[in-house]
Amino acid sequence: MSNEQRKVIYSAMQPSGVPSLGNYIGALKNWVNLQNDYDCVFAIANMHAITVRQEPAQLRKKTRDLLALFLAIGIDPEKNILYIQSDVTAHAQLNWILNCYTYVGELQRMTQFKDKSAKHEENINSGLLTYPVLMASDILLYKADLVPVGEDQRQHLEITRDIAERFNNLYGEVFKVPEGFIPKVGARIMGLQNPTRKMSKSESDNENNVIYLLDDLKVIANKIKRAVTDSDTEVRYSEDKPGISNLLNIYASVTDKTIEEAEADFKGANYGTFKSAVAEAVVERIRPIQEEFARISADKAYVDSVIEQGAQKAARIANKTLSKVKKKVGFPDRPGL
Ligand code: TYM
Q: Which has the closest alpha carbon to 202: 10, 27, 28, 53?
């Protein structure tokens, strides 16, 4: 594909914890496949992460580690733009402008806002409410055509489109209105102990519910072997079998098979055999990632250079869009100080 025809992909992940297997299957794994056909921009969304209290030294470390993990799974910093959100000041600036084009009512309807407000009753800060506006700013700054995310981000993409269209209706075609890019298999990996709720990296109540990409490999296998199933015996994908369906989803995703192929692999197998096979497939997928992560994160100078270059490349694109927006809303057309 020639450069002119290449579409732009944008996605980001919060450094709010070590990524889970859900983050890997719903997002990271797909990013690696997209980098050959698209111009990709991937960010570490550390500004989003502070909507929930973070310990500063920990946040700094988790931010670097997440970047090293992006590299370890195979995202090439030469082919893509890989950067830390807070390094590019245009995000905060566009965020303010777009806040003024977003209604409080539409933000209050966001499921994630309602969930997080219930979970962090002691800290319902306005960042938690305006979080989707920052996310819209991220995406719109880079004129993304497609945004590969898991199912839980669908509503945030819809509001991004609404904000972009509202702004364009007022000022002309300033923003590209992006499309979501949600995988067919693995867009919503569920908890292993509670397969009716999504697996989340920021969950702390039950460690066995979540597989973290940097968990010891033996721990990963044990977590899968302990996963909740049901009293039936058949390995079959079905709404009334959430535990087994989730494991089938995981297996299909890490072996790059369809659900039907995954079911066929376990026709007549008992749950024990099935779980062992899922555990092995996951461990074999994660093993090389962990080895690469150890190698790359030890190379501080390399990680620093990727961070520096990523910020430069991202800022160049973001500032161009910001400058256009500032002109449209009536701010003096001068570069910021
Ligand atoms: P975050 O950090 O919660 O999750 C990162 C990505 O992982 C996906 N994901 C899952 N996919 C499948 N199963 C799961 N259990 C699961 N849990 C998480 C998410 O859908 C996401 O794709 N607001 C975003 C970060 C963000 C962003 C953006 C994304 C900030 N700006 C701009 C896209 C574009 C978030 O909190 O993702």
A: 53
Q: pLDDT band at residue 334, thresholds of 50, 70 and 90?
A: confident
Active-site entry in 29, 62, 143, 201: 201
In the residue annotation, 114 being an active-site residue is answered as no
Determine whether the shortest distance from the Cβ of 14 to ligand 1 is under 6 A.
yes
CATH node for 8-183+300-329: 3.40.50.620
Domain boundaries, the chain: 8-183+300-329, 207-295
**Alpha carbon distance 39, 187 (integer Å):** 22
Q: What is the CATH number of domain 207-295?
A: 1.10.240.10
Report the relative pairing of strands 8-13 and 39-44 from DSSP bridges.
Answer: parallel
Instruction: Give the active site residue among 198, 223, 275, 326.
Output: 198
Tokens found for residue 150: 């898991």
Kindly report the pTM of this predicted structure: 0.95
Kindly report the average pLDDT of the chain as a whole number: 95
Which residue has a Cα nearest atom 29 of ligand 1? Answer: 12
pLDDT for the residue numbered 4:
66
